[in-house]
Amino acid sequence: MSISLTIEQKTVFALLSDKNSCFLIPDYQRPYAWEENECATLWNDILSFAFPDNNCDVFDDDDVYFLGPIVLFTNSDKKLEVIDGQQRLTTLMLLLRAFYHAYGNDMKDSKSLAVKSKIEQCLWKTNAFGEPNMSALKIESETATDNDKDEFKTILLTGEAATHLKSRYAENYRFFQDKISGFKATMPDYFSFLPIRILGNCILLPIKAESQDTALRIFSTLNDRGKPLSDSDIFKAQLYKAFSDDGLKDEFIADWKNLENLCGKIFQLADNPMDEIFTRYMYFERAKRGVRVSTLEGLRKFYEADSYSLLRKYHHQTFNNIKALADFWNDVANQDRTKFSERVLRRLFVLNYAPNSMWTYITSVYFLQNRDSDGLLDDDDFYEFLTKITAFIWAFTILRPGVNILRTPIFAEMLNIVNGRKVTFDGFAFNITELKNALSIYTFSNNRPITRSILAWFAFTDPQQDIIPLETVLEIEHIYARNRFPIPENIEAIGNKSLLEKKINIRAADYKFQDKAKYYLGHVKNKPATQIHELQSLAAMNDFTEQGISQRTEKIISAFINFIKENGLAR
After folding, report:
1. Helices 403-418 and 273-288 sit at what angle, rounded to 10 degrees?
2. How many separate domains does the chain show?
3. Given Cys at both, which of 10, 183, 298, 542 links 14, Cβ 3.0 to 4.6 Å?
4. Residue 567 in 3-state DSSP?
5. One domain for residues 187 and 258
6. Mean pLDDT of successive 10-residue segments in the chain (571 residues)?
7. What is the pTM of this model?
8. 518 part of a folded domain
């Protein structure tokens, strides 16, 4: 398949002043994201280029400064839809508007008038005589998730950004105004040289593609100093086109914005929350296709297969499934008692302390396959599933650390799930003697995720342990303090550790046990008790000694071995 591209190096003025240049930041683009740091870098670079060594006269008129590429395609409305370069283009428009405003009405010398005329042709549509229509801008933003895009339009139309406006558009515009004002005061005789060199000697590389698909493909190979689109931004573009073809553009935009807000709350720790939900859904589609190999392709590569058929041909089904999956994980994050029983919520809390993220993927597959028409799961079956994967993942991690090797049994069970079979982990049962020996000699250091996993699991073996809010910050507590003397040899054993709220852990860190117990029980003025019930029970003891560490270690190991046996994972 041949690809038609138009690539032509252009000055800022040549590109923006073109009569056919009418730029559109489309609905599916992400909001404007440049902050003062990026604007300061741009300003400093341009100033250094235009005034080498802070000297206007040593500038070489043939020299150029490359600002970067802009990937575009002409849509059905004859507008240049911006796929890449949105941040740079938007910022350039703000910069030029700030220069135009700085001229005001009192600077009427020939140089000032010439520069103003050139800026007018870049910002506004002009008639045959080059006269600007001050109400017709050459750029507009339709970004669905940008609540501040109207401020961008207002700033370009009026040249004003009142101090009460807090958008990035307004903050960056005021930043440029301050810089321009300072430059004008310092070098008034050379003021017009800076904007004229920006317009005439700063270079952009517009890459005009024949279609949106081609533009996206070109974009995916570029990496510049702007903030790149994420994988989910690319997916949004594909879904946007598919729903637009169905006449459902507005509905999709609203649904995407709601999904984006929801994922932002659920996956706050993810690098990109929307990529996270697409990743979890990917495992369901992989399982339906019967893929059991442990090698994973990249997220974008998976979805772009067969010309993005999941997002184009099956867009309704895919998007509805992703929205349902996000709702499910939102219910998990909110510990929704109208959706889950108490015992299921206890299992979900423990799984949030899993040593790796594989549980989220197999649980996503389970939900999508087994939900009813109301998005609910059978409580008995779901509880059994959660219990089984907890036991397996914990034990497997002890014996075979590393997430890559865990994929083999997990992927096999994903296929069982989509084929209506229960999760059994047949062929991966554990030798109990081997597991017990491994637990006995395992170094449960604080930096190993499995240490927190075991402690969370053990805390909830106590039937009186209440569900703890997921947002509670729990750290690893040494019950017998590490700085207490004498220091037992088994000070780092799992039997000497427990989860404890961060604030309590800080306060109780190096106290002798009798003093720690007061904090565990909340007997210190204005200090709450721990929510870990076992620690409250231990607080009733007069002391916690080296013998207590050994006894509790054995108790935890024995309880875990029984947990494995009860779940049919022993051989």
Report:
1. 60
2. 3
3. 10
4. coil
5. no
6. 75 95 88 94 96 92 93 91 92 97 84 93 91 94 85 96 93 97 93 96 92 73 56 88 91 93 94 95 96 81 91 96 98 97 98 97 98 97 98 97 91 97 95 97 95 98 97 94 83 96 78 86 88 94 91 98 97 91
7. 0.76
8. yes
